[in-house]
């Protein structure tokens, strides 16, 4: 739920989420960029990089802010610009007819609902359930769950 995504969970050697609060605090200390690395089940890799990455504080639900995109993955995170983070126990999406985190089985910066979702179910490649895997719309679409994804941030004004 919300508390886990706020404070982080997992193991650095495997699945790991740093924590929204720590990411927010980091991104307030200077200018940061976000790099997303994606891999499919055929060992094809893609990347997306965003300048001026930051998250708002918790009272604003860790709203996502992104600058310019470059990369090979396609700009599937742009759709989420200005979206608040949602979990199964906290619905902050823009969807008046549903709850994206519950529908798609994972927490993310949902709008109504997503073009990317890197916290979805871990299906093996192509699957029949729409949009509930590890998805990046511009790289394999909503019916394909990626093998892995990483999100890395670094300070740019060192």
Automatic annotation (TrEMBL):
Domain Fibrinogen C-terminal: 1-157
Superkingdom: Eukaryota
Assigned keywords, A-Z: Disulfide bond
Pfam families per the UniProt record, alphabetical: Fibrinogen_C
The keyword Disulfide bond is annotated on this UniProt entry: yes
One GO cellular component term noted in the UniProt record for this chain: extracellular space
Record-linked InterPro entries: Fibrinogen-like_C, Fibrinogen_a/b/g_C_1, Fibrinogen_a/b/g_C_dom, Fibrinogen_C-term_domain, Fibrinogen_CS
Name this protein carries in UniProt: Fibrinogen C-terminal domain-containing protein
């Amino acid at each position: 739920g919300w508390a886990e995504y706020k404070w982080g969970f997992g193991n650095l050697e495997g699945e790991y989420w740093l924590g929204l609060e720590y990411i927010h605090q980091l991104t307030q200390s200077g200018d940061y960029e976000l790099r997303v690395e994606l891999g499919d089940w055929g060992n094809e890799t893609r990347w997306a990089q965003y300048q001026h990455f930051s998250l708002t504080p918790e009272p604003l639900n860790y709203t996502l802010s992104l600058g310019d995109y470059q990369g090979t993955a396609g700009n599937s995170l742009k759709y989420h610009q200005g979206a608040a983070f949602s979990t199964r126990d906290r619905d902050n999406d823009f969807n008046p007819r549903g709850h994206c985190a519950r529908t798609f089985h994972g927490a993310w910066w949902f709008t109504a609902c997503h073009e990317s979702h890197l916290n979805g179910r871990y299906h093996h490649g192509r699957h029949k359930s729409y949009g509930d895997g590890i998805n990046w719309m511009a790289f394999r679409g909503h019916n394909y769950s990626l093998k892995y994804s990483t999100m890395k941030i670094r300070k740019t004004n060192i």
